[in-house]
Amino acid sequence: MSYANTEALKERTRERVPLQWAATQIEAFDDTGSWGDEAEAAFAEVLRSGNGAAAEMLRAMRSFLGENDMMAILTVITMRLTEL
Is 75 found in the same domain as 45? Predict the structure, then answer.
């Protein structure tokens, strides 16, 4: 996510949610914004999670989307959801 987009998101969320929550969400989003080692590790974690449906879905999305920013975000979100 670019700096300009992050600043715009911060501005929009200041009025709607507590600042601490917004800052945490923005930081988490920034951490997952591009495909790299973190996204690759998250992908592997989902595959090892034992959640076959999540692993199958993520493999299909990666096949369709490739390795890009959107896939990185979806991968990290899926990993976090399987931890719940």
Answer: yes
**Structure-token match 């969320």, residue found:** 13
Structural domain total, the chain: 2
Return phi, psi of residue 2, to 5°: -75, 160
Rounded-to-integer distance, Cα 8 and Cα 57, Å? 31
* Model confidence, pTM: 0.62
Domain around 8? 1-31
**pLDDT tens per residue, the chain (84 residues)?**
454 556 666 665 555 555 555 555 555 555 557 888 989 999 999 999 999 999 999 999 999 999 999 999 999 899 988 888
Same domain assignment for residues 79 and 42: yes
